[in-house]
Amino acid sequence: MSRPKPQQIVAMSGAVDLSALKARADSAARRDTPGAAPPTGGERSWVLDVTEYSFQTDVIERSMQVLVVVDLWASWCGPCKQLSPVLERLAAASGGAWVLAKVDVDTSPRILQFFGVQSIPTVIAFAGGQPVDAFAGARPEPQVKQWITALLDQLRDQLPGIRAAECAAPDASAAEPEDSRFTAAEAALAAGDYGAAEAAYQQILDSEPANEQAKAALTQVRFLSRAQSADPSAVARADAAPDDIDAQIAAADAEVATAAPERAFERLVSAVQRLRGEDCDRARAHLIELFALFPPDDPRVTSARRALARVLF
Fold first, then answer.
1. Of the residues 18, 80, 214, 252, which is catalytic?
2. pTM exceeding the 0.70 threshold for the entire prediction
3. Domain boundary among 173, 190, 216
4. Within a domain: 113
5. Catalytic residue at 80?
6. Is 167 in the active site?
7. Chain segment 133-149, per-residue pLDDT in tens
8. In whole angstroms, what is the distance from residue 9 CA to residue 87 CA?
9. CA torsion angle for 202, 207, 209, 210 (degrees, to 10)?
10. Domain match, 64 and 167 both
11. pLDDT for residue 32
12. Residue pLDDT, tens place only, 145-161
């Protein structure tokens, strides 16, 4: 299967406008400055905490040698807590073929303003001193991995650090072979075919009910599918009809999709307390499904779990 080519940089609706940044990056790229060498000194050196003051060196200049992926995040952002660990794992496994530059938008607000970002997480790839691709919102690990792999494939002949890192990496032929079932599911997910991806992960679970990787992936795929059609007006409709379980579930999905999971959790805990019978069971089951989208130690999850326990017991 051929890999998709990275999209051209565009102004993503409601997400990020890169035109001003690109102009500044073009100017920086024309300066006669040496490119930064690929980082060395262990996996953590491929994950950088970048500020307004280090952006020129750590992103613009370093991207002359290797791909630099900028992660715009904040500590209060729920989807960021899903995406950032995925990016960090992939960067650590890359052997230095690409570098992750993490920007906390709360401590570096001018970078956020300069990018024109309206929602986080937003991820922007830099190569040769310029932004070359971007996406907004949390994505599952297989989709992020394929996005980065496609960029590396396209940029390998342009950025010397990519090939140098790959040549220094251990022989991949000795690696454990990929599970073809997951490969098929990940390909469907990367193509945006959530129905096919869900069916593939469900098929794995049908034969291996205890497969935690498939369970987690299935939960993410189902939410991504719903989030595609999440309607912000669902919140107002649910507030006007507190006993409508379908409205409450739709509103909770919309709130998680717009980085307000704590409101979604509160909504469903209240529904569990207020509703009875099947509607109560649906609210509880959906709440638990939303918990699975976040790290188990997320303080909002632990707080909501305690609230749910108080309601149930």
1. 80
2. no
3. 173
4. yes
5. yes
6. no
7. 888 888 888 889 999 99
8. 20
9. -120
10. yes
11. 37
12. 999 999 999 998 888 88
Are 93 and 204 contained in the same domain? no
Residue 296: Cβ within 10 Å count: 9
The type of residue at 293 is: L
Taken in order 61, 51, 53, 115, is the CA torsion positive or negative? positive
How far apart, in whole angstroms, are the C-alpha atoms of residue 122 and residue 103? 10
How many domains, in total, are found in the chain? Answer: 3
Asked if 56 and 194 sit in the same domain, the reply is no
Beta partners for residue 70, in sequence order: 101, 124
Co-location of 124 and 255 in the same domain: no
Q: How confident is the model at residue 299 (pLDDT cuts 50, 70, 90)?
A: confident
Q: Minimal CA–CA distance to 185: which of 173, 194, 176, 172? A: 194
Dihedral in degrees, nearest 10, Cα atoms 242, 245, 248, 254: -160
Tell whether 197 and 249 lie within a shared domain. no
Residue 9 resides in a domain: no
